[in-house]
Amino acid sequence: MQIIKRTTLKQKPEKGERLGFGQYFTDYMFTMKYTAEKGWHDAKIEPNEPKPFDLATSIFHYAQGIFEGMKAFRQPDGKIGVFRPNENWARMNRSATRMCIPNFPEDVAEEGLETLLKLEKDWIPTEMGTALYIRPTIVATRVMLGVHASTEYLFFIILSPVGSYYAHGLEPTKLLVEDFYVRSSIGGTGEAKCLGNYAASMKAGELAEEKGFDQVLWLDAAEKKYVEEVGSMNMFFRLGDEVVTPALVGSILPGITRKSCIQLLRENGYNVSERRVSIDEVIAAAKDGSLKEAFGTGTAAVISPVGLIRYKDCDYEINGGKMGDVTRMLYDTITGIQYGTLPDKNGWRKIIG
Ligand SMILES: *Cc1c(COP(=O)(O)O)cnc(C)c1O
Q1: Which one of 33, 125, 149, 190 has the minimum C-beta count within 10 Å?
Q2: 254 lines ligand 1 (CB under 6 A)
Q3: Can you list the residues of the chain whose pLDDT is less than 70?
Q4: pTM value > 0.90
Q5: Pocket lining: 205 vs ligand 1, CB cutoff 6 Å
């Protein structure tokens, strides 16, 4: 793979500095282009610098674009570990299909990622809870205002050293159940990791933040009755001796952390169901004490305990506002596999370098 070197390197954040999420970017990026004549071509590593774009470029107007989120973790022996990257490439191509973006060669993306990570190894932060966030993206680059799928695309991977996703780290989050705005509906794009989904969810997110909540808990668009997800995390509830997560009905993003948690729970003897779960069922369980735990799962936040939910102006505290045992077990297991401190029985850890 071609590597175009830069003459001066950027200043890296100081050791121990608060990294936040997605504020620092590394020296290099992977890029690859698509044109109708050539298909995907020109895969290379180049300096991560601003690029000029014509303002009529279609991505700016119609949001024909998709992304992924992964993390690289420094292993105890100094090597680089990535969690289930092949799952991300496969999902990215499913998102591409939904958004009329031509599928890309997954082996070229993986080779690009591995070359990039080896080059940027010194950017992987070392403190517990930190990682090098990986953001693969595809945007429509044809200069054209007609509402049609583009005939040109740019695929890129940028890297960002990150701390915990929420400013308060592993403290349980507060969720506001949204019963007016919707994130996605059946037949819409909720299953795809496409750019517009996030723009569409910002209004409700902002209103929730003004009221002191961390995130919105979305309900289904048709009936505002069934729990869907949190917009960057899938949801799990421990109801009595059953662990429930909303079934992937078409409007929910199929999370890789979600899938991994379902498998880990089953391997540990828990009774896990993927089914529709109504907000009324969750609230009734909160009232009668059978709602033992709630947590969200996603690459950015890993496993995030939920300490309180508000629905129709009533607050329901979960597990005394503290992290529960199942949440803790999943957090410890997934991070142990990611950071290379636990055995990786299922082969989820890809070691590079
Ligand atoms: C990315 C994302 C998730 C989490 O998916 P992971 O593969 O676990 O990182 C959940 N919901 C939405 C809407 C997302 O965009």
Answers
A1: 149
A2: no
A3: 165-169
A4: yes
A5: no
